[in-house]
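Supplementary Note 3. Input sequence used for the single-chain structure prediction.
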Amino acid sequence: MDAWDTEKAEDTVSLENDEECIVFEISSDEQKFEFIAWILDISEQEFKQGSKFLEDHNTSFCVLWRLFSYLDVFTVTVENYYVDRVYRDSYYFYFSSKHFNYARFCKRLCLFYGRLEKDFYDYLSGELEEIFMGSIVLRPIVNRSIGRTLLNPRYFLPHEVPWKIRLAEYNVTVYGKKLHIRAFPYSMQDGETTSCAEITILNLLDYYSESYPEYHYILPSEISKLAEMNSFERRMPTTGLSYELISKIFCEVGFYPRLYSAQKMAKTKFRHMLYYYIESGIPVALGLKLGDENKHSVISIGHVAPDKEHIGRELSCAYDSQSRCAIWICDTADTVGSYCIMDDNKTPYQFSLCTEEKDDIADMPLLKLDGCEVEYMMVPLYKRMIMEAADAYDICLTILASVQFGIKDFMHRYMPEECGTKENPVVVRLFMASSRTFRKARDEQFQEKNYEVRDLYNMTIFPKFIWVCELATRELYAEGRVMGEVIIDATSSADRKTDSFIIIHYPGVICRRMPEDCAEVRDAEFEEIKDWHLFQAFHDNLDTNAWINSVY
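The predicted structure, written as discrete structure tokens, is reproduced below.
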């Protein structure tokens, strides 16, 4: 087709090696359609069928068409000889051995918001970075062409939807211009060297290797070798991987993963743990069941804003048998219904509704994600993340209701109404954080007020990771403020129970423990804080849009 010949580009810059930097300006649906059809080598016959036909019959076209629908006017640069490390690995260990020829090179699109008012090379990297929306690799594979894709979600999500998503910082060099972008990697499976399972592994390791020096990236050929070491048949062409095998591969590359089965635990507890880990900034893999036979794997990286109207509708009770003290709790996990999903069959950053439904045939509860049954959750934990989410939650509730460390005796000091009742429950928000990030955030928050608390926090020794349970009322939570928190050692085991706490911080008092106080929890006492104030919720685990201003 000749609708988008490179000679018709808005701007074409010749390079010394005869490669061309082609720049397109796109401002209408017709131009979007013609550009996508050209870049994907859509045949003239299919082109004449229109966009609706291609949406239904070409997955790559469908994804690009829907991504571009979020944009009004934008500029695209096209690199025709791009070397993508994933596809090049698949090419040499698999596609090059085929009878028919496969191309070695990919194409890469880089998207910029709005029009470029001057020639591409006349821009400084900093100027382009301000309008850089992301990059998309196109592999020379029919239908499933989209390879490693890095997109800034701010441009590709509805502005009215407040979200919190875990992203990483990436570098993209476009014709000598080094640009930075915050994104989570996305890619389609090619159907032969990668299925949804391998894509889950690749994208998670892409994120972790970019974010933390402890981890390294592995390629499809390496995944295949690891899978062969732990299975009993050939792995190419791929037939997918079980979640047990996915978890084993993460063990092999240095993680300490935890695999949860939705069929072996209460669905509410499973849904709560999904929230706790996502709120901790830990992307998790979810195994889905599609119908009776098909399986699918996706990654959850964030969630939408909590439903403030739902706060207090679902309650649980923390009870101490010795004091017979009961504290009514509202868990923020019950206020979040939709999660951000990276699904290789759909566009990046899709929000999916997570619900508990009843199976009419088996007469048993099911956990579903947009109608698909959730079977597994694989959490790629760091080796120092020993305590699991459910154990941390149970320990925090035990502390809140305990005789020695309970919150009930301290709330009346700064709370005009009685807290911990059914009418006014204590709102708890549980998450894990690195002590470095958490201490930095609290130090900055306590600079304006709470000087005593700031000094006590800074003098306390923390492990590498901690579990934090923020405490609030419904009104305070809606305002983004908290009245205290319980901090637990994430390197501790569940058997330690309340001995795991490091700080218990209530209105006007604080109780701290140092590493040498391991066996002296009964001697721990609260210190009075003379000048105490409410403080802001911690929100540095996830990237956000306007939600931070309205909710937190």
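The two ends are 51 Å apart (CA to CA). Confidence is low (pLDDT under 50) at residues 6-18, 547-552.
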